[in-house]
Amino acid sequence: MLAPPAQPIAVAAPSDPAAEIVVTALPPARGDAAYDRVTLGRVALDGSATERIEDVLTGVAGFQQYRRTDSRTANPTSQGATLRALGGNAASRVLVTLDGAPLADPFAGYIAWFAVAPERLGQVRVTRGAGAGAFGTGALAGTIELDSADPATLVPLRAEVDYGSRAAVTASAIGALRAGGAAVALFGRVDRGDGYVITPDDQRGPADIPARYAQGSLGFTARVPLAGEVDLVADALGFDDRRVRGLPGNHSVVRGVDTSVRLLGRGRWRWQALAYLQAQAFANQLVTTDATRAVVTPSLDQFNTPATGIGGKVEVRPPLPRWAELRLGADIRDDSGRTEERSRFVGDAYTRLRRGGGDNRVAGAFAEVSLTPLPRVTLTAGGRLDRWRIGDGFLHEIDAQTLATTIDEHPPARAGWQPTGRAGIALAATAAVSLRAAAYSSYRLPTPNELYRPFRVGADATAANSALVPEALRGAEAGVDLHAGPLRLGVTAFANRLGHAIGNVTEGTGPGVFPQVGFVAAGGAFRVRQNLDAIVARGVEAEAHVAQGPWRLDASATWTHARVRASGDAAALAGLPPPLTPAIAASATLGWTPKPRALVALTGRYTGAENEDDLGTRHLAAAATLDAVVELPVAPRLTATLRAENLTDTPVEAGVSATGVIDRGTPRTVTVGLRWSG
Length: 678
Hints:
Blueprint (H helix, E strand, L loop, with lengths): L35 E5 L1 H5 L6 H5 L6 E2 L15 E2 L12 E4 L2 E2 L18 E8 L13 E7 L8 E8 L3 E12 L2 E12 L19 E14 L3 E15 L6 E16 L3 E20 L6 E22 L6 E23 L2 E26 L2 E23 L5 E5 L4 E15 L4 E12 L3 H5 L2 E3 L2 E4 L7 E14 L2 E13 L2 E8 L2 E3 L3 E3 L4 E7 L2 E15 L2 E15 L18 E9 L6 E9 L2 E2 L7 E2 L2 E13 L2 E8 L7 E4 L5 E3 L4 E9 L1
């Protein structure tokens, strides 16, 4: 961990009354010093050219989304997140929390990034490496903790409006109200745009249209002091997202409400009690095109996918001598959901009606102790024991014309015990150099989507697998941090083994009829979700930060050698990189703040080449992009902004179909705006 907290995207903060933010959470644990951790504050959150949280996180070495597109154009279900090259799967392998509550969709495991406006956050903490202990299932490759700003520290009103390329409009506002010791922050944001055509000029046809989007979120955070140094914190977030992915009839809709209530004890006994509820729904319509991309044909109507996540957590930190800290706690989570869809379009109608879903439940307890036996040495170790259950699963399909049952699967419920743990040491070797090392284990249950829902992408079709077992990770890391004057440098080497990694394995090619999915056309692949033997990833992450006067340089890079280990039906994947996993990724921002509230920053990013599919027959080229941000004060409380994405208009390949048609990432995009803060 770098000290002071690293801010790998941003540059020196403008003089903003909201620059110093207190968050509504328990303080970081003492043992965190032993783990590879990065903290992003207000500077980083305000410094993105896209003003989107997933773009902010891209500056953290090792962070990766499944696709190279953000939440304006990606299919929502592809927006899982991972760290340390453990990709190859659209479900998140990182536990993402908002004010302590899980943020991933309970059915499919994707993250609704669009719903989290960076301006309402106080800080983001990223821990790379399995987050066992207090985090539990889902923290397979690490944790991303999004913490709302304490409403008591916010300015009364901050509002911004932006207009840019392709009629893109963003309007956001956050305001704070105070009454006595209580405070509430209200926030809202809307984004819409005509979008760009995701197919390159030399491949597009008459049917290709821009990828339009319209998104909004609305919510609040309230903090009320109670008797006895106890605070009540309540959060609510509602969101709505509608996208058209480049073809008439390719529509998706995401709606949801996430709520949580916490009690925070600030006395000698530090503690937290959390309860949360997620209620989300997803709908998706897909079409296919002919070879000339002139005619579209319906392919799937996933008209209703409701999902619910409910759970709670208690953590206690009892008073101990200054050289010791103890964390004790327990948590429970229940995720359930189902899909209802029409498929196999023949003639002028869908011929199949399909429903599938199930319930995942985890209850666990954890303990973690951190000791400082010597002034420069921190030792930490923790473990947890979970009882998990996968049950109530089903996949049922009928012929829409005859009403005859074509699929009727009701796998038996399964349950098991899962122990996990982590341990580490941090040593302040000198005043400027600190060393750390850690080992850890964690696991992830397969999502109901992976267990029970077949799906299609273009000509490719993938069958579900209700027999999937949990993924299990074991890993170790060692790092050194240097803090010398204006220079902060951190380097971490790691080795991870993800056993039973869930992947989509090619088992046939079209034309042909295959289980669960029906007919696959010529050139299309038939895949089945399977547990691979393992994904083994070894690599190095580095971050550098230099601040000198009004200038600042923040850079991060990661190199990873990730390979699949596989046998049996998946033997052809052995030795290949996991799909959509680059070996090299890097980011650097050079910023200049000539006066308060003024900022000029350039951000360059590089992503290495990737295999698009499991067999490595399709490839995505490496891409280097350049972003820019300019902020200039034009009045005492008014700031003008200019933001540019992909200034060089570099072609960014985000996907390639079975017929070789490319999905493009964001082309050159420019926005101008005004921000008022009072």
